[in-house]
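ok trying again, last paste got cut off:
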Amino acid sequence: MPDISAKYERLIQDLRQDFRPQREWGEGRGLFLVIGHFLVGVAAGAWLFGLLFNYPPGLIAGFFLAGVGGIAHLGFLGRPERFWKMARHVKTAWVARGFVGLTLFLAGSAVYLPSLLVAAWPWGPASAIGWLGWLFAAAGMVILIVYMGFVYSASKGIPFWNSPLHPLLYMAFAFRGGAAALLVTMAALGMPNQETAERLITIWIPITALVIVLFALEIQGALTGGNAAAQRSVREMLAGRVAGYFYGGTLVLGLLVPLVLVSGKLAPLSFAVLAAVGLFSALGDFFMKYTTIRAGIYATLKLRPARIMS
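nice, full thing came through this time. structure:
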């Protein structure tokens, strides 16, 4: 009861403000949603790069991260045992489409991975069952990469999220997270060769540049779009309640540190340095998503003047 009373008092205080912050996603149980979205995005990216580089450990990492991300999603739900009901709204809700994508990905990869890793498995990766698993996992991967940004941009009540660039930004995050996951996996298990490491770094750098450009454009659009709630969200992120997470987590840990490490000025590129680049890059992506979600401000209500009946 004290917890319910505290939430009620906070809601009353929020309603009295000119700009009401959203608290459902990112605070309390809502933190599980942020973690879940972050992990499944990295998982889909890791699977993609595992396929591109023909690197099975990357596929395993993607499968594991997706599973943990699914558990985090269940932790967000008030009644986790009813998660299956989300699929009924697949025609109208991006969250439901994401659930379908995660299901396809986990089921397909669970079918495909054993055939790839175990020589004596009843079916091989080139068999009909193996190909079916590959196709299911690939379809789920595409959905997971695409859907997350639309979950937020479809939230009309929070103007800062309602940006046409938001889906593109989340897709770029998935690619950057996938490259980071592969860097960590290769550093832990051993690089196939030096050329592979260099190719992965040369992919990570332009993806990082794309993330920076898209995010800067989204901030610029929010500041110049004329919506007071979106402008307040930017203020909360740059000079408000989540500014510390943004500057310390996103800019310093997620961008500055990895770029300095990649430059080779602190130390030559080694397995340890590559692992650090991947870890800090992924950590920065998490804080980027966390701060943009926490900075969400509801659109202000515009009351129409009452008509006086004569």
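cool. The two ends are 49 Å apart (CA to CA). The mean pLDDT is 87.
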